[in-house]
Amino acid sequence: AIGATLVGVIFLRVVARPPQFVLSIAKLLHLHIAIDRMYAEGHYYATNIPLLLLAVVFTLANQALMIWSFYLIGTTLDMNGVSFLDYVIFAPAGMLATMLPIGPVGLGVGPPAFLSLFKLAGSDQGANLFILYTVIVVVMSLFGGIFYLRNKKSA
User: Fold this and answer.
1) Which tens digits make up the pLDDT trace of 72-105?
2) Are 18 and 34 within 8 A, CB to CB?
3) Which pLDDT score is estimated for 138?
């Protein structure tokens, strides 16, 4: 993943605009303006090293907080036999599996993926771990959405 990211950054630094064949295909799909704008943003990040490094730091911090959240929820579920290193390995891998477009918020994919991964660590609570994490994220997002809508009306 890191190698692919580095190749993408190098490509965006070297090539200022999307290749013409990409724009031709995008134009057929009526997406050429969006593709051009997204590419311009990617090029801006790739050529602005301090901003790129800041984005990497924020990404790593976000991943660390996610892993820590899984660890805390796992402790609550009495998953004491699972080491912190297991969370570092299995939580991101499980979240990657939830990106398969089968159900909303990874439901349908997440529980079996987490169950299988955390069984490797000796726990049968993987599905419960994912479901609790998802419930917490959804509830926090709803509170954020309510806050956003209330402030949007007053502005």
Assistant:
1) 999 999 998 999 999 999 999 999 988 887 777 6
2) no
3) 92
Residue with tokens 């801006």: 44
Phi then psi for residue 127, to 5 deg, are -65, -45
> Which one has a higher pLDDT value, 133 or 20?
133
User: Tokens representing 84?
Assistant: 């912190």
Distance CA(64)–CA(58), nearest Å, equals: 10
Give Cα 28 to chain centroid, integer Å: 30
Distances (CA, A) of 63 to 15, 31, 41, 58: 30, 31, 23, 9
CB-based contact 29:39 (threshold 8 Å): no
Instruction: Please say whether the beta carbons of 31 and 23 come within 8 A.
Output: no
Q: Phi first, then psi: what are they for 50, rounded to 5°?
A: -60, -40
Task: Tell me which residue of 60, 84, 62 sits closest to 72, measured CA to CA.
Answer: 84
